[in-house]
Structure formats: structure tokens, C-alpha cells
Amino acid sequence: MGILDGKVAIVTGGASGIGQRTVERFVEEGARVFIGDLDDNGIAAMVARLGHNYVDGLRVDIRDEDMVAKMVAGTVRRFGRLDIGFNNAGVGHFSPIQDYPAEHFRRIVDICLTGTMLCIKHESRHLISAGHGGSIISIASLNAVQAAEGFAAYSSAKAGVTMLTKVAALELGRHKIRVNAIGPGLIETPATEGLRSNPGILGGFIENSPMGRSGEPSDVAGLAVYLASDASSLMTGQTLYIDGGQSLKKYPELFSAFGIG
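RE: above sequence
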């Protein structure tokens, strides 16, 4: 038996990285999972590997409210219920603020913050109507509390996710819906390859981590399982930072590492 037996989850961005490993862990713990992702091939690969009885999915751009609503409806139609929302889809962009293209800034905020809100909106709408409560988990970031050069949009959007989490928890607690967030530090995923491939930046992360290492998707997925399960039944409105203690020290100086004056 797993601690998520009988539960059904949505995982956005579930075809790679943190999302992929979380889908795997949720299934290992007895849940059935519906993946929302832009990568059709990635979704198909996950379904083929984990089994159609346990995993299904749909191409979803979380900026599109109609697509988000269809994702939630599709989950319930396919698996009969919804218990867990894991809002993981996100994207970043690096630029000095004086050169930051407005269209890229808007895209980051639209995906990381507005898209997360749309997921919470439609997940909670169904959970309220079902009446059995549930757990909604969103991915924030260490950058929600620790500024990073070149990350004006990403840091701002992820800080917004932490406050969105608090407001949603305050409003939804009366419906027995818990809302929490996870703030990862540097995790070894395809999305962070651009940072990790720079020896100066990777070394800076390790040097400023009391635990002396970067993270792996399984680190975040393990915390997601806890927040999705009844073991965390009294926890809501929190952002849990899983960063090896890096928030206790400082963020690497990205401009100098990339040769920006």
C-alpha cells in the first residue's frame, strides 16, 4: 500500500524534470496521475512507461484558461475524481533589467504566476464541488526570497506564487482544501542546464549550500508526496524551501560568471 492509494492527481509540467519524477513518485505511492504539458511526446512516453491505467495526459498551455479547465475536466472524466493539484509548469529568462524585453517579462509572469493561479482556480473549483477536500501544491523557488541577477521576472513571479499560496490557503481552508508551495534551490533538471554548465555558477551554488550539493528531482518529489498525503493534514499556506540551506547564505553572482559588467 502507498500513502496516496486511491487518490488522483494533476501534475503540470509532468513530462520532464521535477514534474516527471513527481508523477513517478505519486504512482509509486498508489495515485493515478493526469499530466498537463506542452510536450506531447513526453506525455506519451510517460503513459507508455507507467501504464495507461495509472497515467494519462493532455497538451496544455497553462496560460490558456480554457485548456486548464479542460485539463481538470479531463482528469475527472478519465479517473473519476481529483484530490491533488501539483502546479509545476514554469519557465525562466535571463537578462539585465535595463535590457529586459517586455514581452519576455510578460511571458514569465503569465506562465509562472498567472498560469499557476488558473490551475489553482479550476482545481479548487472542482474540489469545492466534490466536497471531499484536497491538497494543492505549487512550485515556487528559492528565488522567491533570494534575489538573483538577471532574474527580474522569474524572482518576481515566484514571490507572487508564495503570496498566492497564502491567499488561496486562507480562502480554501473552509472547504478542507490545503494549499502549499515548494521552493526548490538548484535542482539538476534540463531547465537548469544553462546555469549548471557554467563551472563558476555551479561552484557558487555548492559553496553557498551548507549541505554541499545541488538537488535532484527526487528531493522535490519526496516533499511533494508528503504535502499531497494526509501526513501533512494540518499544513497549509506554507512555502517549504528545499535548497540545501542555500537561503542561509547567498546566491551566486551571475553577471560576473557570464561576463556581464
